[in-house]
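Intended use. Records such as the F-box domain-containing protein entry shown here are meant for training and evaluating sequence-to-structure methods. They are not intended to support clinical decisions.
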Amino acid sequence: MANANLLGMPLELLVHIIATYLPTQDLGALRLTCKELDKSLFDTFAKEFFTKKQFMVSSHSLGTLIEISEHPVFSTYLNHVIIGLDNYQSLYHIPNQPDQIQAFRDGCADQLNLQRSGRGRDMLAQAFRNLPNLKTLGIRDYDAMGRLRDGTRWRSYGVSTIRRQTGLTLGTYHGGSASDYVSEIYSVLLRALSDARKTIPSIEVILRHTSYGMTDSTFYVSPEDTALQAVLEDLQTLLLTVSLSHRNGSTFPIDYDSNEAPNMPPLLIKHLSYTKNLKHLRVNFAGHDIRGIKWLMKSLATTSDILPNLERLEFGKMELDPTLLADLIPRFSTSLKHLTLWDIELGYQYAKHWFDSEDRYHPWPPLLRAISKMPKLESLMVGRISHAANGRNSMSIGLEGNKPSQECKGDMKVEIPKLIAGFQVDWPQPLVIPSDDENDEDEDEDEDEDMDDE
């Protein structure tokens, strides 16, 4: 009987029983044992570690991205590049040891130089030119789950090295400076693509922190910048988190303090006007940007010939009047197939059609009934929806079975009424005003008591 060995095992057993459960370091050691094993494991290894990778703004991290892009094989696997918002200036203290302090200062200076000199943009453009199958660029402010092999998260490449050198874990900006930084990264990524004469189908800005988003000036496109316009024109998916009325990114004079939405459209509208082939748009708002929400939604509703091929629309983290949604969404009725409304509060708007038969403000049912009439709509997903109430800040709409979200598929004229029927609303108890007769009885009792006292 021949001796059993790894090379004699079926590939499925080798990959799924042995290699899948090895820590990364041990997997690397296994691949180095012989060329035949490396060849057998290569495709699985490359798909796991080089299909989707997250980097940060540092010479070391972006330099590694360039090295991957120049590799004759790994470059063909990489189709999803993410830039994390890991940043030295998010830290409020520095380490105590001299060598750690020096490493921190060098890293911070390197990062600032990449941002200010344009070298970071040049490095990204160099990498993008060499990635033949690049499909998606992303921006994140978090480390994703899913690295089951080592029981950890997928972090930006280079972060672990920085932690070893400085003893610190980089964070992301918070507050106003966070909006500036994510805005800068988005602009740099777009212009790196245009420098590389590279177009891709998808850009995804996904932020977990709810206090910041990209400012309106981020979306400026020069009329002469035809290369950037070409990048936008080829996009099919665009996921955004925005804070349009943020002061730092405002394109209005410093003394502009109107609470009303400006009469001219935001720069984001012009930005979207170039995305003629866009099929999937997501817009999440940061913080309580009520003016920015109204500004964008009114402009979208009144701008002609925008997003003509839109099939999937997702709105999230908004507080707005129901009329704005009612006016906007049907504008895409000729193409829209999928609609998501997530974490949306409808403001109080006194109009009879937003009230139910018991004269209670209940705008979601009439809004959704109007949406159900859209001829091409195939699915609707709602979650964490609410509305303002007279005398109360907010009233949540519970879904059937206490689900966090619910999706309707099929005939919307049938499925949306089912969704509405399952709404659970904790209506406040009505005030009970005593009748005149009851008051008279109370007065009579008081008079009797007074007479008894006498």
